[in-house]
């Protein structure tokens, strides 16, 4: 059942800081372009050569690590979980599972990644999402993830 939370057009980096505990160098979402209640969200990551992981992954051909694409999807999903709760202080969202992960294309400096996350279900404090990461119209990664919301 969908939450009656209004659709928000976007969240800038300051709003994301208020929701998520992640900070540089582990924040993988620069903004959230669209949130539709607790059903769907689109997060954006602008990948630059200044990302610290490019020094070692890989110096001669920098590629964004796939695990960080999964983390970006999870952070976008986590924003949905926290926003739809009627709480004064944000809860903590813990990553529980990753299923059906596939990495289809590499992501390079200069790319903009769109994380599209869609809720499959939530029961009590456990949520499950279908996620994909796209660069332009090309799907670069996908996964099904679940998360646990814990009181802060």
Furnish the topology, listing elements before pairings.
Elements: H1 13-19, E1 31-36, E2 40-46, H2 66-83, E3 92-103, E4 112-123, E5 126-135, E6 138-150
Describe this structure in words.
With 152 residues, the protein is an alpha+beta fold. The chain is built from 2 helices and 6 strands. The chain has a 6-stranded antiparallel beta sheet, with helices on one face. 30% of the residues are buried. The mean pLDDT is 91.
Provide the domain count.
1
Task: Determine and state the CATH class.
Answer: Alpha Beta
| CATH architecture label | Roll
* Morphology call: globular
User: Roughly how much helix do the residues carry, as a percent range?
Assistant: 10-25%
Main traits of this protein?
152 residues, alpha+beta, Thiol Ester Dehydrase, Chain A, 6-stranded antiparallel sheet
């Amino acid at each position: 059942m969908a939450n009656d939370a209004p659709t928000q057009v976007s969240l800038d980096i300051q709003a994301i800081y208020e929701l998520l505990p992640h900070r540089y160098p582990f924040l993988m979402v620069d903004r959230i372009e669209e949130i539709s209640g607790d059903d769907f969200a689109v997060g954006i990551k602008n990948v630059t050569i200044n990302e610290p992981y490019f020094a070692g992954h890989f110096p001669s051909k920098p590629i964004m690590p796939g695990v960080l694409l999964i983390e970006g999807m999870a952070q976008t999903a986590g924003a949905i979980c926290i926003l739809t709760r009627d709480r004064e202080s944000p809860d903590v969202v813990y990553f529980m599972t990753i299923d059906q992960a596939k990495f289809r294309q590499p992501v390079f400096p200069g790319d903009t990644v769109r994380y599209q996350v869609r809720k499959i279900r939530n029961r009590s404090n456990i949520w499950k999402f279908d996620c994909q990461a796209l660069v332009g119209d090309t799907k670069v990664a996908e996964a099904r993830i679940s998360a646990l919301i814990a009181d802060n």
